[in-house]
Amino acid sequence: MPELSYREAVRDALSTAMRQDDDVFIMGEDIAEMGGSMGVTHGMLEEFGAERVRNTPISEMALAGAAIGAAMQGMRPIAEIMYEDFMTLAAEQVVNQAAKLRYMSGGQLTVPVVFRTQGGAGWSPGAQHAQQLEAWFVHIPGLKVVFASTPEDVRGLLWSSIYDDNPVVFFEHRTLYGIKGEVPEKIEPIPIGKARVHREGEDVTVVATGRLVHESLQAAEEAEKEGISVEIVDPRTLQPLDEETIVASVKKTNRAVVAHEAVTRMGFGAEVASVIQYQAFDWLDAPVERVGAKFSPLPFAPVMEQFVVPHADDVLAAIKRTVGK
Amino acid sequence: MATEVRLPRLGQGMESGTIVRWLKSEGEAVAKGEPLYELDTDKVTQEVEAEASGVLLKIAVPEGEVEVGRTIGFIGKEGESVAAVEAPAPKPKEAQPAPKEEKRVSEPTTNGRIKASPLARRLARERGIDLASLRGTGPEGRIVAEDVQRSEEAPRAVAAPAATSTPLSNVRKTIARRLTEAWTVPAFTLTVSADMSRANELVERRRELEPDVRITITDLLTRICAQALVRHPAMNVQYTVDALLAFPNANVGIAVAAPQGLVVPVVHNAEQLTLGQIAQVRSDLVSRARDGKLRTEDLEGGTFTISNLGMFAVDQFVAVLNPPQASILAVGATSEQVVPRDGELHVLPLMTMTLTCDHRAVDGATGAEFLNTIKTFLEDPGLAL
């Protein structure tokens, strides 16, 4: 199997779709000559030309609206929002238009648009360029929300998102672009709404997203040394959520930790914790532990930034709390 | 007449209150509903209103802690005299109890609520385990699933190696059924001791004369009991719901500890048998009982039972009735006892016997006379010939 970086995997999905399908095109700020601020679309202008790799003015609302309009007209646009912090600027279009139009038109309109965006701390981008706002969009009926953590997943899920007839907000993590992983020779669509069990275990289930999947895998290695067997579940799609896989895992292990880089309070993990406590109440042997960022704007100072966001150590501590060690 | 002001109960569970201060002074006029004093309870400090109008004649308790219901003052007409009220010494503040040692791990309860995980609760519910009996080892003393599982395993671990399960044999089932039945019978017991000097001599002598027929005390007892039953026909009976059955023959059962359990083969018509014949019948029955070769008829028709545990050095015991028989004699070991007789001390071989009787069929005096006859015969065996 070929090995791709997370960044290359995203580009591969975009390029493959564009090669096979004229309706697919990308638009965003600095995605053409510059290849995007994270280099994801590097080289695509040369292959597909300026018509299909469209630089937009610095207006997230305008580019999101343009993408929605194109989608309503039958195209399958992928709009890149440079930082998910800037999703706030696109929010009106995403939340009030994209999410609502199919419903409000009685199904006469579909909006097959993908809003690709990225975020995440760990490289001192400061408080306005590193937030993890995925939970905001999970709260909106009419949107699908994806957050992939591996090259294989990001490629297969982006593919499914492009060909989904509903608007998808597609989160990528800044610090994952460089990680490499094996991917199938040919793109294999990964169904939206299906979690991935990264590692099987008996004692604790960690439901993790994005960067925290990797931190949790590391924590699981450490826990293993102390005789704690950890199962890692990555939902991959936050909306719709694969509750079945999560609940089945917790019923097996009787303990759960939810982990993400986003601020803990009102984070996506709160919803997962609620699903678990409701559906697996009589199987829980410990309170559901939550791991997330401290309730603070992200500091610029590297040590402070590291202090605010969670790491493998935090996941390990939470794992140990659930087993009472 | 002056109205007593008593400390009111202002809330459930209020036992006492502390008077902070009076808002009126002695001799001051007070109207019903006017604040009279300030009271501090364990919940609040509040003003208490006067329940009568007049003059505050006397303040019996100026301040301090007072039990509910105690008179703390008087309201009446000006100049009215009031009974002297002994002011209680203000209760000293209870010494602050020493702060309890924090024992979070071993005390999973807070305010009676048991701290247990949902899984632990479910497991305990399913397995019928009382959570209160468990010690929580989880965070903050929480009872976790492991604690429930451990508690279930613990007694097993202790009990399991000691007990092996053997299906009940029919003998065991019969014993259980009949003795349970016996336990429902109103029974009384009578105990007597007999001087076994002559009985022992007789047994010894017979053994010398007839070494091939080994006479035992049980044989002699069988003979004696059979003769006693003949002399006391009121003892040779059985109670049934609508009639008392009296038997012409003394069929004496002998309790035998066979390998498969207790069996009671019967020496039929024992009153017609000589001691030697009884010994032969008994010897045959006992050996067949030990070999498991008893026939049904060997076990039927008993009207009386002897249970002799003397060979096991039991001093005395009470036997459970062998239904439907009306009585059973429990025989202990013969041992030398110091007995005062005619102003002198004698060392005599005494044997203690306890007769259990079905009171529905036999009265106490009847049983006593019968038992006395047995005693007499044992002490003078020639009388039973």
Please describe the topology of this protein.
The complex is a heterodimer of chains A (325) and B (385).
Chain A: E1 3-5, H1 6-20, E2 24-28, H2 44-48, E3 53-55, H3 60-72, E4 76-81, H4 87-98, H5 101-104, E5 114-119, H6 134-138, E6 144-147, H7 151-162, E7 168-173, E8 180-182, E9 196-199, E10 204-208, H8 211-225, E11 230-234, E12 237-239, H9 243-253, E13 256-263, H10 268-279, E14 289-293, H11 302-308, H12 312-322
Parallel strand pairs in A: 2-3, 2-4, 4-5, 5-7, 6-7, 10-11, 10-13, 13-14
Antiparallel strand pairs in A: 1-8, 6-12, 9-11
Helix pairs in contact in A: 1-7, 3-4, 8-12, 9-10
Chain B: E1 3-6, E2 16-22, E3 29-30, E4 35-40, E5 45-49, E6 54-59, E7 64-67, E8 71-76, E9 109-110, E10 113-114, H1 118-127, H2 145-159, H3 170-183, E11 187-195, H4 197-209, H5 217-231, E12 237-239, E13 244-246, E14 252-254, E15 256-258, E16 261-263, E17 266-267, H6 275-291, H7 296-299, E18 304-308, E19 327-341, E20 344-358, H8 364-379
Parallel strand pairs in B: 14-18, 18-19
Antiparallel strand pairs in B: 1-8, 2-4, 2-7, 3-6, 4-5, 6-8, 9-10, 11-20, 12-13, 14-17, 15-16, 19-20
For the record, the CATH class of the largest domain in chain A is: Alpha Beta
User: N-to-C SSE series of chain B?
Assistant: EEEEEEEEEEHHHEHHEEEEEEHHEEEH
Shape of chain A: globular
Low-confidence stretches of chain B: 87-108
What integer is the average pLDDT of chain B?
A: 85
CATH superfamily of the largest domain in chain A: Thiamin diphosphate (ThDP)-binding fold, Pyr/PP domains
Q: So, CATH architecture of the largest domain in chain B?
A: 2-Layer Sandwich
The total count of helices of chain B amounts to 8
How many H/I helical runs of chain A?
12
Explain this structure to me?
The complex is a heterodimer of chains A (325) and B (385). With 325 residues, chain A is of the alpha/beta class. Chain A folds into two domains: 3-182, 3-Layer(aba) Sandwich (Rossmann fold); 196-322, 3-Layer(aba) Sandwich (Rossmann fold), CATH 3.40.50. Helix content of chain A is 38%, strand content 20%. Chain A is built from twelve helices and 14 strands. In chain A, helix 1 packs parallel to helix 7, helix 3 (60-72) runs parallel beside helix 4 and helix 8 crosses helix 12 (312-322). Chain A is globular and about 60 Å long. The termini of chain A are far apart. In chain B, 27% of the residues lie in helices and 27% in strands. A six-stranded mixed sheet of chain B has the order 11-20-19-18-14-17. Chain B has a four-stranded antiparallel sheet with strand order 1-8-6-3, with no helix packed on it. Chain B has a four-stranded antiparallel sheet with strand order 5-4-2-7, with no helix packed on it. In chain B, a hairpin with a 2-residue loop joins strand 15 and strand 16. Chain A binds chain B through residues 254, 281-286, 321, 324, and chain B through 117-122, 137-139, 142, 144-146.
